[in-house]
Amino acid sequence: MWISGLARTGFRGYSGPVADIIFTKALRREYASTTAVDGIDLAIAEGSVAALVGPNGAGKTTFLKMVAALLEPTSGLAMVAGHEVSEDARAVHSAVGYLPDFFGLYEELTARQCLRYFYLAYRLDGNMDRRIEEVLDLVNLRDAADRPIEALSRGMRQRLGLARTLLHDPKLLLLDEPASGLDPGARRELQDLLRRLASMGKTIVVSSHILTELEDYCSHVVMLDKGRLVFSGTVAEARQRAGGGRRLRLRVAGGGVKEAGLALAASPGVSEALAAPDGWAFRFSGDDEAAERLLRSLVEAGVRVCSFADDSGSISDGYMKMMPKDNA
Amino acid sequence: MNPLSRRFPEIYRCLITECPPGRLMLGGGTSVALGFAFWTAASWDKDPGHMLFLYAFWTQVLAFIVYGSIRTSASIADEREAKTWDLQRLTPLSSGDIAGGKLLGAPLYAAFLAMLLSPWALVGAMVSQRIGSEVVFIYLQFAATVFLALSLSLLASAYSDLSRGGSSATAGAMIGLGCLYTLAPALSKDGLDGTIVYFGMTIPTAIWFPAVTAAFGAWAFAAAKWRVGRDLLEPARFWRFPAFILYLIVFELGFEKASAYWALLLPSVAIVMAALAEPVTPETWRRWLASLDWKDRLNRTPTWIAGGAICLTAAFVLTLIPPTAAVADVYRRLPIVLTLFLIRDTAFIQVCRFTKSRKPEIMAVVFLALAYIVPMILLTVSNMRVLLPAFMPFIGNDMPAWQNVLPGLIGALAAVSALAYVSRRSSAK
């Protein structure tokens, strides 16, 4: 089925199965004179948790809407769970759980009634009440299940929105700015919930501006700017980019900073060492095994090592480094 | 959970939101009070039963048709406003499930009010000793008009982006009130007891009216379903609108006294309305023309082009129909003239969509209105009505056929050339 989709969109040269749950090729979307998404090539593997980051107007929401088959691409290809969005939008709808960046809920209903409505709308079989209890438990909303939605807090509404997306047990969750407008407590609850979902094997694509929180549970980062893909890779790769290579940090006990410095200077692969009151930060050109040998040689040289860890930047640093200056 | 709610989840939601217990009690109390008020007012009349029936029936009509239309016209527009529409789009519900659910769910309270007044209407009919079959035909027409009004309201709602400022409710009220004009003649003495000759058959109007009303209701529902389906990215079917245009042509040809040459008038209006309502953007053009698969390209054909093609074909066929004693020979050219002006206007609407105007439809309507009204005023005032066929689809009685057809042909060619030019320029960008 997707082969015909490729032919229709002009990708006759592409062959081979699409193993990724999301696969896009030259994906483009225009609105009148604006190009919101401009030729994105991206693959997201099943089971990964990808952070979709970028400044306002980067095309994050448009990208997510196209992947959710709510918006037809102007050109290019988007395959989701083996279905091409332009060709088989209804199959894509069944495979994804999409949480938009606003609280689109039926205010007059209670949380339970709202979930019942969507249970019926999703044409699910089985015990409706049991399934609803399951998702209410998952999002920790059982106590508020019979309260009208209009009386729920913002955080509760967001969790109810997530419960709605989980009802039909989709493989892929697309969450557009789920933490937007939430207080720190609600954000923490949301983080815990996303971590739980990730541990359940769900593939999650979450767009957010709050980059520091994404690091805790995301395995991959996708950076967009002005509709273009700036970076896509693992969180470790993003950190590495932020640090301009691998950086390590050594902390020593008992004021042995000078001795540690001498030992580092004699070690291969170490450069640009910067002293700190309790140790050193330095660039290291070796791999994990070389780092292990370095640590052993430091200990053997009598350096009292307290900690020895990667000191690469955060996603935020990577974002600041990779984004054009007028955005970052 | 009742089976209807399982089939149409919208009914489950509407039962909770539209019909909470307090509202039902209020409606029940009001209907009892209204009934007694009707009874008291009717008792002063010579035929109290007849008056009671009329009071109760027309209140049912107002409740179901006008209030029901208001609620239905807000159904989809409200969802777009509240941003819950996308969530519905993500469910496996088909366009038929959603449109059907809205049609049945949104006017639930209006139906409840109408139902509560039924006993009063029944008592009135019994007291006045109305014939049972007449009551049946009245309610048959009522049901058909309800279906038409609600379907039209659903269609209006499907095309509304927002319901802000009560615009959708106003549209619903206007549709409801407009449908009362359909109901009133059908319930007159002639409407209930008369006959109509249609395609040579003599049919009782008591059957013909509800059948025609329900048929138009079904078309309106199909159009609303199609519009919902487009939001769901359901595959389009190119034949749907042309089928409606064909239906309109055939419908008009059925009337005994109507001239076949006027059969394209109603379809032309429908095509212009479709051209205005269908958001055919430059992007739609690009996608339509760039489509590699012929089936896909056919299904992406803008509805006004597909409908226009039917009109053009019908125009040639109608021209072949020999004139009768009642209709002059010059009228044979009318379908062609009408179709050429139709092509001109619909192509012009599309040209406006390639401009930078934020409201190209409004721009097109204004220019088209001026293109008809200004020459009409100027030529009438200056006593030069003979030139009217140059500016509008009129028949010039003393004109040779080619002279009568030429202005429409020039206009159509100019508008189509302009459209080809702007679309090429847009593609080049």
Descriptive key words:
heterodimer; A: 328 residues; alpha/beta; 6-stranded mixed beta sheet; 35% helix; globular; B: 429 residues; mainly alpha; two-stranded antiparallel sheet; 19 helices
SS summary, helix count of chain B: 19
Largest interface: A-B, 37 and 31 residues
User: Unreliable stretches of chain A, pLDDT < 50, 5 or more residues?
Assistant: 1-18
Radius of gyration of chain B from CA coordinates: 25 Å
Spatial separation of the terminal alpha carbons of chain A: 41 Å
H/E element sequence of chain B = HHHHHHHHHHEEHHHHHHHHH
Shape of chain B: globular
Number of helices of chain A: 12
Q: What value does the average pLDDT of chain A take? A: 83
What does this structure look like?
The complex is a heterodimer of chains A (328) and B (429). The model of chain A is unreliable at 1-18 (pLDDT under 50). By secondary structure, chain A is an alpha/beta fold. Chain A has helices spanning 2-8, 60-67, 89-95, 111-121, 128-138, 154-166, 184-199, 211-214, 235-243, 257-265, 288-300, 315-322; strands spanning 22-31, 34-44, 49-53, 75-80, 83-84, 96-99, 172-176, 203-207, 220-225, 228-234, 247-252, 270-276, 279-284, 305-310. Chain A is built from 12 helices and 14 strands. Chain B is mostly helical and 429 residues long. Helix content of chain B is 74%, strand content 2%. In chain B, helix 4 (48-82) packs antiparallel against helix 7 (108-127), helix 6 crosses helix 11 and helix 12 (240-253) runs antiparallel to helix 13. The relative contact order of chain B is 0.07. Chain A binds chain B through residues 4, 7-8, 10, 30, 32, 68-70, 72, 74, 85-86, 89-90, 93-94, 96, 98, 100, 102, 104-109, 113, 116-118, 120-123, 128, 164, and chain B through 1, 5-6, 9, 12-13, 16-17, 82-93, 232-234, 281, 283, 286-287, 291-293, 296.
Task: Summarize, please.
With 328 residues, chain A is an alpha/beta fold. Chain A has helices at 2-8, 60-67, 89-95, 111-121, 128-138, 154-166, 184-199, 211-214, 235-243, 257-265, 288-300, 315-322, and strands spanning 22-31, 34-44, 49-53, 75-80, 83-84, 96-99, 172-176, 203-207, 220-225, 228-234, 247-252, 270-276, 279-284, 305-310. Chain A is globular.
